[in-house]
């Protein structure tokens, strides 16, 4: 949005880009859909300089196409087409009134006109090359005037605008700086100016959105041809043209299309530039530029591929860490059985389930006997080995569905879902029998037998209202086994 203050300055600025009466008349006439050629030619005839230029443009190779040269303005306008004639009359008079010489500070007018003309040609050529039927002459006008707001800002804000433009900015960066420094960018001002001259609403809209990014990749609209035109012009005017070309890749079709497009823009540049008294931008080598832009895109996609691979590796690592973390949350690192915390969670849910559906539930509390002696006698490391061996035995003795885990140091729990008290006692018997029958481990080739004190409890043994009450009873029964001499099972 243009601020009121800026709008006021624009409205009263005496040096704002302006059009001679003849051109304003021509614009007004051209807006009439039934416009006749004669009054338009008459209006243009009031400006001899314009007349000469329009005739000379109509006689360039581009428009003559082998026919006889145009000698009158009428013939020239017929050949150029109405919209094109209006557009050129407009451009000529602006260039004439505003000059195009390079200045030391602020807007470089020569560069300005080079970009405007290149954009206009680029937009028109693009419109001609895309399959859609587009009004290439109106597109030419909008592209030619897309930066006209820069002339206006230069006239209104002189020194401030010179600072805004300082620092060798890219064109997109200029728009951004204008919005920051002046509250509006030159496309807004340009559209406003074009409207005051009576240009069609469509032309004003295309100027306003000329610096946006096109949405369609398959079939460009007129406005989108204008949007791409300034960027196409930058292929000639900004450094690293191949980078600009690479950025335009999504909209410019295949290599043949691109090569033809660049070739035809390049062909017309000197003709139009000469008419506007501007040096044509340095020639580019379309093939070389296409090659470099393809190389760049290839490099980028390789980099992208590398980055993708790196991200995939990071994701895999993250997943692995996550899995380790969730394992650490559930498992005891020494025995690989469930740890106490997770065991309690499981037991609580088994307890609640059994309470609610009346199913059976039993608990076996196991404490290895004289474990301190094992450590003291053979070392802590050997003690660890014993704990691992017992965990393996416990797991091997359990039926599928029995939950076993390490409750603490040398204490273990077995949760037997849907198992009666006698079934749990039988399980404890089998376990203790195994311990008695075979050595759990060997130390230096010598068999080491371990025994355990066990407590068994079932849900039906008491009026348990909390899971911890049942564990407490199992623990007490295990202690009873200890007190009664160890290596035994207490189930009552
Ligand atoms: N090697 C090893 N020892 C452990 C581990 N956790 C606990 N302990 C040891 O287990 C021993 C338990 O000793 P106590 O509580 O006195 O029990 P105990 O020697 O088995 O005697 P009773 O239970 O009365 O038969 C302590 O020496 C702890 O250091 C472990 O992860 N590895």
TrEMBL record:
InterPro entries: Diguanylate_Cyclase (IPR050469), GGDEF_dom (IPR000160), HDOD (IPR013976), Nucleotide_cyclase (IPR029787), Rev_trsase/Diguanyl_cyclase (IPR043128). It holds the Pfam family HDOD. Its EC number is 2.7.7.65. Keywords: Coiled coil, Nucleotidyltransferase, Transferase. It comes from Modicisalibacter luteus. It catalyses: 2 GTP = 3',3'-c-di-GMP + 2 diphosphate. This is diguanylate cyclase. Residues 294-328 form a coiled coil. GO terms for molecular function: diguanylate cyclase activity. Residues 16-213 form the HDOD domain. The keyword Nucleotidyltransferase applies. The keyword Transferase applies. Residues 359-492 form the GGDEF domain.
